[in-house]
Amino acid sequence: KFVGYPLTPDGINEFLHSLDCGNAKHSYYRAIRALCIWLYRQGYLKENPIRLVDSPYVAKKILPSVTEEQLRILLEAADNLRDRCIVGLLFDSGLRLSELCAIKPSDIDWSTNTLKVVVKGNREAKAVFTSRTAILLREYLASNGHDSLFGMKPRGIQDMLTRLSQKVGFPCNAHSFRRGFACYLHKRGLSTLSIMNLGRWSSLDMVTRYTRSITFDDCLELYKQVTKS
Question: Whole-model pTM?
Fold first, then answer.
């Protein structure tokens, strides 16, 4: 689409301003920047025009996260005990689909309500779950036996969550649960460092991204709780 515009700061700006594609505008900017850098280094350009062009603003989207109230609705709407266990674990633990599908019944430590999971980099870590989910899991395991906990692949769980989302009318994919896990703990006063470790994130920046939907009112409520005399 840039063909026909002059390879100058004014030409690049004119092209970028002509686009109406939201955050995708930044992708066009990066492509033109790569071209300009290559042409300049190869000696085709005496000056690099991209140096005088500001990068397009990228809006930070607030992605959906499952709330505690939505969790209650999802548990009631789930078709069977297996699906209720999956929903409960996703919210309690912030599990990734790959982590969830690899769990075996022997990975559950009932004394601490924790799970042994395999995370990115093929290393072992732990995930937590609540006593509410523990009750569901015990009931489920009493009548179901699989080498893996649920005997499902990631695509099967995705399809189940898609059907459930259509049923309740709001997003409930694995990432919305993971964001919900982080936001729920943040609203209850856990530090970013604690959430990072409980959610098996590799950096604090990732936790910040996942808790972007936290509002001033959420923080105000927590402030009132911790400053009560």
Answer: 0.72
